[in-house]
Write a structure and sequence with these properties.
362 residues; mainly beta; 3 domains; 5-stranded antiparallel sheet; 3 helices; 28 strands; 3% helix
Length: 362
């Protein structure tokens, strides 16, 4: 099967950049596009994850592992550039001699007003890759709706954070449970999925809007919020679920339809110290098994450090990145116990391009 949706080269829409800090202003290039969302993590030490997007504006940080409100730092990510981004002297982004990873997504560039919902939003949307960045002001009204800008496409993932308040992140994931609109997950937490009408008002997203409950975390009156919205695109992105089999060597295989460049996995059915949001990519780890260099969206831990102890305290997460998906290679609460997992995956290359060229495994 070939793909004809314009995504033969996924790196035009998602890319991973590794760099070493200099302690001085640093321009990073080689991204292949001007990012609209960049997520940076210090690989060497316990600095928080930092997310910056073009709609909120450069220098404005959110932290996936914290509930903190948005922070402005003139020495953080200073600009989104034609082929990358520039960082200032902020320790969490550019300490001299330390190693960093930056995951970047292409949005729609300049944002515009969207009146599809009962709340007017500001949206930068990329219709080709199925990704939009949305900001809006809450009204505490259960049943309020927000336009997401992905025309004619129903989102698979909606990730929301209050910019003004110390509230946790809220994630809608379309494969979270059999009725995902009734539940939410938090990327700053190891908690299992929670059934709560106050998040999505028990209403699934549509091709024009997503719905809000009355919780302050995503809909407090006069508070500003940001949402990162993703729809699946064949050969480029997949947001699914799987059941782990508990095997220590021959774990569950997950079909994505492409060779993954990035995978984030969370055990959605269980809570605990080792049910973190495990982040893998093929830039930091260039060969299989992809293990030992895991980062965790909910932890400030350095790369490969569990955060609740050393790697030896329990088996570290391990997966193989394959030409058409990924395969778990360990008995581990974070990726392959006898439990339910959700994941987000972005492609390195489609399984077969629109010209019929197949990809190869690593």
């Amino acid at each position: 099967m070939s793909y004809t949706n314009g995504l033969d080269k996924p790196s035009d829409y998602f890319n991973t950049k590794l760099y070493t800090g200099t302690g001085s202003e640093l321009a990073l290039t080689g991204i292949n596009f001007q990012p609209d969302l960049t997520w940076i993590k210090n690989r060497d030490t316990t600095d928080s994850h930092q997310l910056v997007d073009s709609v909120r504006g450069a220098t404005k940080n959110l932290f996936s592992n914290l509930t903190n409100a948005e922070a402005t730092d003139a020495q953080g990510l200073k600009s989104f550039d034609t082929d990358g981004f520039t960082v200032g002297t902020r320790l969490g982004m550019n300490t001299s001699g330390e190693s960093y990873v930056g995951w970047s997504w292409l949005g729609g560039g300049t944002a515009s007003s969207n009146t599809d919902g009962s709340i007017t939003s500001t949206v930068s949307a990329n219709q080709i890759s199925g990704f939009s960045i949305v900001t809006y002001s809450g009204n505490s009204t259960a049943g309020a709706t927000v336009g997401h800008g992905l025309v004619g496409v129903v989102p698979s993932v909606v990730l929301v954070k209050s910019r003004d308040g110390a509230y946790g992140w809220g994630m809608y994931h379309h494969k979270n449970t059999s009725a995902p609109e009734t539940d939410y997950l938090s990327i700053n937490s190891t908690d299992a999925t929670v059934d709560d009408v106050n998040f999505w008002n028990d209403t699934a997203p549509t091709s024009s809007v997503f719905s809000l409950g009355g919780t302050d975390a995503i809909n407090k009156t006069s508070n500003s919020h940001v949402a990162y919205v993703f729809a699946e695109k064949k050969g480029y992105s997949k947001f699914g679920s799987y059941t782990g089999n508990g095997s220590a060597t021959d774990g569950t295989f997950v079909y994505t339809g492409f060779k993954p460049a990035f995978v984030m996995i969370k055990c959605s059915s269980e809570s605990g110290s080792y049910t973190s949001w495990s982040m893998f990519d093929t830039t930091r780890q260039t060969f299989n098994v992809n293990a030992g260099k895991t980062l965790y969206a909910n932890k400030s831990s350095a790369e490969g450090v569990r955060g609740n102890g050393s790697d030896s305290s329990t088996t570290i997460p391990a997966i193989d990145m394959l030409s058409n998906g990924f395969k778990c290679r360990v008995l581990n609460d974070e990726v392959n116990n006898t439990a339910t997992y959700i994941y987000m995956a972005f492609a390195e290359s489609p399984f077969v391009t629109s010209t019929g060229i197949p990809t190869t495994a690593r």
